[in-house]
Amino acid sequence: MTYIVTDACVRCKYMDCVEVCPVDCFYEGENFLVIHPDECIDCGVCEPECPVDAIKPDSLDEPDGKWLRINTEYSKVWPNITVKGTPPADAESWRDEKGKFEQYFSSEPGTGS
């Protein structure tokens, strides 16, 4: 099992999870974070830290494995992030919106740390 970042992170990107990860397996996109599944040690400390409940065990992924594929793909090309950054100024306004990935996801990399 590994943990994955899901739709709720898009445009919120709070990054509280990054601070607690003991193996630095988070990678940063412009408006989304992902977890590298081969680096995640399945400790689960990141899951309760996410204020928008975007981190889930991969056993709760969609039937087609959508989020595991997305996390795997982008963790290979985005920069690693090990320090909590500043979330977007409008993050709170995106907190409860559903279906953000299809509408707002950016494949552009973040700045990393």
CATH level-two architecture: 2-Layer Sandwich
Rg estimate, integer Å: 12 Å
**CATH fold-level name:** Alpha-Beta Plaits
The succession of helices and strands, N to C, reads EHEEEHHH
Mean pLDDT: 95
What is the 3D form? Answer: globular
Number of helices: 4
Structural class estimated from helices and strands: alpha+beta
Main sheet: strand order: 1-4
Distance between the termini: 26 Å
* SS elements, strand count: 4
Number of domains: 1
Uncertain spans, ≥5 residues at pLDDT below 50?
A: none
- Give the helix level as a range of percent: 10-25%
Proportion in β-strands = 5-15%
Main sheet properties: 2 strands, antiparallel
CATH secondary-structure class:
Alpha Beta
